[in-house]
Amino acid sequence: MRLSRYYLPTLKEAPADAEVISHRLMTRAGMIRKLTAGVYNYLPYGWKAIRKVEEIVRREMDRAGSLELRLPAVQPADLWIESGRWEHYGKELLRFKDRHERDCCLGPTHEEVITDMVRGEVRSYRQLPLSMYQMQTKFRDEIRPRFGLMRGREFIMKDAYTFDRDDAGADESYRGMFEAYKRVFSRLALEFRAVEADSGSIGGSFSHEFMVLAQTGEDTIVSCTGCTYAANVERAQLPPVLDRDETEPPAVEEVFTPAQHTVEELAIFLSVEAGDIAKTLLFNVDGRPVAVLVRGDREVNEIKVKNLLNAENVRLALPEEVTQWSGAGVGFAGPVGLKVDTILADFELDARRGWITGANKDDAHLKNVCLHRDVKNVRFADLRTAVDGDLCPVCQSTLKAMRGIEVGHVFKLGTKYSQSLNAVFLDEAGKEQLMIMGCYGIGVTRVVAACIEQNHDTDGIIFPPPMAPFEVFLLNLDPKDQAVNAKAEELHDFLESSGLDVLMDDREERPGVKFKDADLCGAPMQLVLGGKSLAKGIVEAKDRRTGEKRELPLDRFAEAFEAWKKEVYAGWKMDV
RNA sequence: CGGAGCGUAGCGCAGCUUGGUAGCGCGCCUGCUUUGGGAGCAGGAUGUCGCAGGUUCAAAUCCUGUCGCUCCGACCA
């Protein structure tokens, strides 16, 4: 491809509203343009990257035995009413009426549609298992779209669905997809972790998220330094403490702490560490008060509270509720004498006996509180959000926290949809059974954004070869010079015929402009040919990732290039 | 949903307080010079100042409404 015939509008400056690096670089490199909030045009250069990702995903899905199909974007409300999600999905589901006043929606996901299709055709266990996938534009009307392609309203997703006759089969389907996902992200040369994720409200099921590691990630995950355990912090389990200081403190003592509402204020006021304070949070759990105690420097994980109590709704108590339940204003609740039936304490508070807590009385706290001695109905459990340095629940090694971008999610659904939509089949005994389902998503457009978040420098994007729209940028520095031009054309044709995507910069621009654009657009390999290099009988080769330069002799170009390419590719951790 | 901010040339912005008929940088077009890390000079094109009302002799500027976009927040005591 010749740049003079291509559409690659690059920008020196990014639009003011682009906050994150991938958004800025994708805009500057002529990959995307915003049409409206959270909705983007994919320009040829951006689309080509998306296509490369799609192609790898497609190969691995096919290899895993899944069948590609294509479902509609517009869906009838009836199905969503039937599954119960017309009510529950919320405003992210974009709804509208057609000319006959029929309720419709734009598909944010396709469980309903595919389950409807399968239930209409599949009658016998002989037709199972089934695995199908599609790549398609989804629409989710996010409250606040942001970060360019990272959280758009319209985006491309690969979604797959499996239908099995029994639990064992469903687990196998799940494992197959899990492995396929690992291959996809490995082949894309992304640094990622597959982590345990919260399975939400669907009991008995499990799920994993695939996280691309990047400082700018919205999620925090923990990964064990000693074993393979890795989990989203929302989910990461923490073990009970092993080292206990059983020294019994002196009797509880009330201290005057005027207007010390927060842990930070209180710690300074009493000259102690936040970790010496046990904070008491009151929650409204399905309408009932529940007290949760964690160390002052920790955070309660509401999901754990919800799961532990098998609750539907967990929310922090309103100020009025706090006053009603604790007898004091916000900031002074404590476990001693608290008239709340359920008092939970994080495992960590079992590590020693003396804690500072609220006194259930305005402007007062208690010292030397021993939960075992001074509180009758306290129950210890894993209740807080994991942090860097916590111990692994599996092997007790240290957990390391890192930021990640969720690019894939595999989910064992069980019978959630087959039940609500009545997707059944007859087993060998002629008995009607519910299909066991799984669903699996990859945010294709987000993968591209996440890749750029992970692979860039101050000059621009650094594409890993598998995702690069063009593996090679060939800079023809003197397109007006007959000899240079002829040689550049020859190199271009040779590289293209060897199966590479090549973009030759044949514009009549100054060299500096070409260097800047090449770095910005991030092809992993740059070749530079100008009057000087031609006179020396070489072409200059630059590894975009390392910046390392090499001179390739023109008379032995084919083999020299092949050797260099191998070197460049070896720098990327690509499992193929 | 609550709060804040911004809409002026393709992009980044100034002008608005104190009304007088629109400017800067980059980009774009033409010419000459230049040519290995975002060139120089000269000339040129491009704006219903988001939209709709209002005030005024006169509105980018003041007022009202409206639309769009962006950011922050949605309660960890």
Would you mind describing this structure in some detail?
There is one protein chain. By secondary structure, the chain is of the alpha+beta class. Helices cover 28% and strands 29% of the residues. The protein is built from 16 helices and 31 strands. Strands 3, 7, 8, 9, 10, 11, 12, 21 and 24 form a nine-stranded mixed beta sheet that branches. Strand 25 (456-457) and strand 26 (460-461) form a beta hairpin. Helix 1 crosses helix 12 (444-454), helix 2 packs antiparallel against helix 6 (167-187) and helix 2 (44-63) crosses helix 12. The chain is globular, with a radius of gyration of 29 Å. It binds one RNA strand of 77 nucleotides through strand 14, helix 14 and helix 15.
- What is the number of helical segments per DSSP (H or I, 4+ residues)? 16
What's the main sheet like?
9 strands, mixed
- What helical percentage do the residues reach? 25-40%
Residue runs with pLDDT of under 50 for 5 or more positions: none
